[in-house]
């Protein structure tokens, strides 16, 4: 574990570029986007070089570490700014910088009419830097810096068009929901420190076997809370839909391919905690299963193409989280699904962006229809992503999603059967809502606004889409051939090979079941959406109404947290003025009143002064007299 | 004669003086009442001197007389000055301190 | 004469020089005052460079007899904690001068008086952190109120006279309690055979527990008012809304630190038993302050009182860190004092510029600032991020250390405190959303961006926040020995990790 290479460029380059573009301001408007894209590309190239360097090393020597400097050192709390590039992080490095670079290229065209394009690219680079720090940090605290850093980048990018008050509110909502998760992460770090006296991954891993079950469960639960915040999992999922306020490339990069999957990374990275605590694992599985269905259900009713895709993201990450809760074998499949999802979901989002680009930023799918003819390339790349997310062989999703369904069935007992059914059901609903998106957007009749002049997007936009489509087609097969990814990740997740031997159902049966469910979902959608009214019909099932309102997630949060919080705040402001400061003012008031009363004695008449003196003397004598008696 | 009678006399004189200061309005009369109080005190001092058989009380009464004389000088001067400007020797008219 | 004494006298000399300048030439007055404050900053940096980091004893000490009858001395000296606070002070003063170049023009008195008051205040601020004689400390502690009183009352806005009076009375009340405790302490030292006001010798006294409790309360209440801790906080929002941005910066950034500094320097070292007795109660107060300040900050409509309430929340964190008494929490608390000084400075100064340009301090009157004044908006945003302790800014390091240290001993308090970071996100981002984001209303369209002078003023503050966030080692290195000394004196050691390798 002591191979040392220079990893600092991963973070330093995009961070420098981001700072430079922000500080130079308008002066960098002309070349800022090119510069940022080149930086992102060079990070990708360094990543590829590192990847091949890693492959040339064997076993233990593959992971590389680098200590940059001593960051915090107080008493026994020693944290270095250190980086760790191992088999797990390199997957993320390549995904982040690869997809990131494609999205940089796409954005050059997509944002070409925006006056703040340079600022946009500065934020994108900031995001790349923070996200790479998140996956490269060698301790929980370093991860935390990246964790909040991506939160900041996400906040800035969601609120990029913050002139619209709703968008500014969405940005704030995302940050605050993320902060709730961050509390989980910071508490996990604190528990880890009190237990193990260290917060590095290596140190915690070493100590985990000796810790009590309660402590491990507590750390696991807090890490899960953190993951739920960042990855929009139940019960902190509500921000993701609103986060679609950001420019579409942002939705593709941050809110689909990379940042929202940080929760999966966190749990996979902390496998030693979860493997040692079945309770925490169970919680992970439950959260994943709930979100999987929750997101899928919301996805069926959304007319906003980006929100439908966001719900889908939520649901797909539910699959990954569920997989990470299934023990050692699950981690690899979670990461595999994460990578394939990164390709096809980013592709789908870019496709959606391309459609919006051609349709005057219209997002309502009921105003689309028949776009296949005017946007052939977009339709084709979107279609490939669609096939991938459905899990049609041999597209990417087939390999990754089927593995998760299989593992769910294999997890044993009633839990296994239940999870298997849930994941199958999720696959069916996914097929339904994705077909709905496909049908509403690309086939059927024109339902465009009169002013709409849809056209195919320029090369700079469709080239990244095509690249991602290639990934959607091939990545699953490549990662799965000869269990490439499973073997690659084996040193990190300690996966036990014996797990493979026993299957509840043979893989081929699971695949057939999954494909059957998917076919049913597709069929229902195709039949149901032969004709599409431009205005969403009102007489729909209760579940559809609920799904349109995001299953009342916002109403719930408002009723339970926001309104009581507002009342509490208003009440406290009132109390502070009336009671706390009131007491202070009461003291002042008493002094004033008694002073103005006492002032009456000073009437200016000599004889009254004399009388008071006499009375005073008499009182004094009386007092002395009484005491001496 | 019982020597304590002097004390009683002193107390009565002092009380008369004190009441005079409080109830009379003419500055001259008030002033005379103050003199009366001072002299009542002097009487008490002298009496105590007699009772204790030392001279401390008598010495003090001399001091008091000197102080009283000074006071008369200053006080009368003030009264005259006030009378000149206000054409009145009433102490109630001189209540400027209130404002 | 030690370098510390020269540092103390330099601003005073500056005040004298300014006093002889013609009042009509305001520009010259400002330039001379700024030159002196820069010189002070330079001297303090020179002093910091010659500071021995490995030595936990007081350094640059100097003792001269002042009132020999009571063994009162002019005794000064600094350790790591005092050094970082003094550096913060000397750096903030020129920043405040530069940032509020014109804020002295509309006062009750002329520009000269403003700068004389500020320079005198600087001497006192340095003195209060370097005094090693309790009586000297007390005198400066009280005397410091006067320049601030005149700065608020003479150069503030709104109900400045009332605010100044409230501040003065509150502080005098606390000071009175402290005076009683100081006298009590002196009498005990006389009874034990060595009349002294020397801090080191006073902390050697053996005091019975009842007396300790009363004397502790005398000191603590004075410091809790100064800091301020709930429920002694109500003077702060009033003062902050009425004072000029520069005065608020020094008031919250530096003067209030005397409260938390005093808790460490006096309460803990003189009365170790009473500290243990009162720790649960104080930690409760600290947690209440954290949450209460944060909730009230969310509910504020005035930008200055919002900042004041965030400070109350932050002082809760500092107090929590001090009384949790682990090396992480204590170092975190001391470092927090410095970061809060710079963070609050950035907030008040940027808010001050916003208020001056818009002519209103109501958050609702702003909006869309990012479009018309991007540099100003960004400065305010970064200051806000510092208030919500974003990693990468120095406030994160200190806040995290406080919570981490507190968690080991008082997990419930730490968990409640951690909730404060959600509320922090809310109060900062709500203000940002209302003031900076959104459409620019016509009334804000004419707001101009920062000029060069203002940029130069804010740049070092933001640079320090960022640098210490990524590389806090220089500060932590200096603070750690002080923390160890305090821990040793209190006879406390860190809780060990539960799992032993």
User: Looking at the structure, what is the overall shape of chain A?
Assistant: globular
Cα distance spanning the termini of chain B = 53 Å
| Overall pLDDT metric of chain A | 87
Q: List the helices and strands of chain B in order.
A: HHH
Rounded to an integer, what's the Rg of chain A over CA atoms?
A: 31 Å
N to C succession of SSEs of chain A? HHEEHHHHHHHHHHHHHHHHHHHHHHH
CATH topology of chain B: Helix Hairpins
Q: Quaternary status of these chains? A: heterotrimer
- Count the DSSP helices of chain B: 3
> Strand-residue fraction of chain B?
under 5%
**Which CATH-level-2 architecture of chain B?**
Orthogonal Bundle
Summary of the model, kept short:
By secondary structure, chain A is mainly α. Chain A has helices at residues 8-24, 32-56, 87-110, 117-136, 140-158, 165-196, 201-208, 213-230, 239-242, 248-257, 262-269, 271-275, 278-301, 305-324, 328-358, 371-374, 376-390, 396-410, 413-442, 459-480, 484-493, 507-528, 542-548, 553-599, 606-628, and strands spanning 64-74, 77-85.
What's the helix and strand layout?
The complex is a heterotrimer of chains A (629), B (99) and C (501).
Chain A: H1 8-24, H2 32-56, E1 64-74, E2 77-85, H3 87-110, H4 117-136, H5 140-158, H6 165-196, H7 201-208, H8 213-230, H9 239-242, H10 248-257, H11 262-269, H12 271-275, H13 278-301, H14 305-324, H15 328-358, H16 371-374, H17 376-390, H18 396-410, H19 413-442, H20 459-480, H21 484-493, H22 507-528, H23 542-548, H24 553-599, H25 606-628
Antiparallel strand pairs in A: 1-2
Chain B: H1 4-23, H2 27-52, H3 56-86
Helix pairs in contact in B: 1-2, 2-3
Chain C: H1 3-20, H2 26-49, E1 59-67, E2 72-78, H3 80-99, H4 111-130, H5 134-143, H6 145-155, H7 160-191, H8 199-202, H9 209-226, H10 235-242, H11 245-255, H12 257-270, H13 272-298, H14 303-324, H15 327-358, H16 369-372, H17 374-387, H18 394-409, H19 411-435, H20 452-470, H21 473-490
Antiparallel strand pairs in C: 1-2
